Amino acid sequence: MTTINQYEGGKKIKSLMNLIIKDPVRRLLLISGTIIVFDQITKYLIISNFMLHETMAITGFFNITHVLNPGGAFGLFADHSAVLRKFFFLFVSSAVALILLWFYKKTWERYTFFSCGLAAIFGGAVGNLIDRFRYGKVVDFLDFYIGYYHWPAFNVADSAICVGMGIFVYHVITNNIPEF
């Protein structure tokens, strides 16, 4: 089996990756930036290629579908007035993003894995915040189902938030939580 060090320049790549992981600002930019870019590209592709509510069946348990979520997670507050929803979610999302940055700054040196989770949550929050600014709603397109039961559609940003929360829960379970 070949490793990265067996290739010309492998040590440079490994050195660059260590620099990124050890530098907290680069780590934040790499993780959250990648999530934001990938999230926005996938949403652009959905908006450009699918009519609203158009669905393409992929397998017996997964569809790609174009939906707009006016509410929060799982459609929370979707039935409230559009103006109230927009300001509420813009305010809450912005506040959460700022709090995440504060937590990140407090944890980036001693808790590398934990801070990676915070960076993932931050990237997901910003990805969905961009949609709220642009459309007043969030573009969702990943639709998993079993029989007639469909999990609420979601997107890349939502997935990143879940992964970040998984890392957070791991730290809670292992009692390895930083003190703020």
List how many beta strands DSSP finds.
4
Domains, number: 1
The 3D shape can be described as globular
Q: Report strand order across the widest sheet.
A: 1-2-3-4
Helix percent reads: 55-70%
Structural class: alpha+beta
The ordered H/E elements are HHEEHHEEH
Q: How would you state the average pLDDT, rounded?
A: 87
Strand content: 5-15%
Q: Please summarize the sheet with the most strands.
A: 4 strands, antiparallel
- Which stretches of 5+ consecutive residues score pLDDT under 50? none
Radius of gyration over all CA atoms, rounded: 19 Å
Distance between the ends: 44 Å
Q: Compute the number of helices.
A: 5
Task: Give an overview in words.
- With 180 residues, this protein is of the alpha+beta class.
- It has five helices and four strands, in the order ααββααββα.
- Strands 1-2-3-4 form a four-stranded antiparallel β-sheet.
- The mean pLDDT is 87.
- Helices cover 59% and strands 12% of the residues.
- The termini are far apart.
- It catalyses: Release of signal peptides from bacterial membrane prolipoproteins. Hydrolyzes -Xaa-Yaa-Zaa-|-(S,diacylglyceryl)Cys-, in which Xaa is hydrophobic (preferably Leu), and Yaa (Ala or Ser) and Zaa (Gly or Ala) have small, neutral side chains.
- This is Lipoprotein signal peptidase.
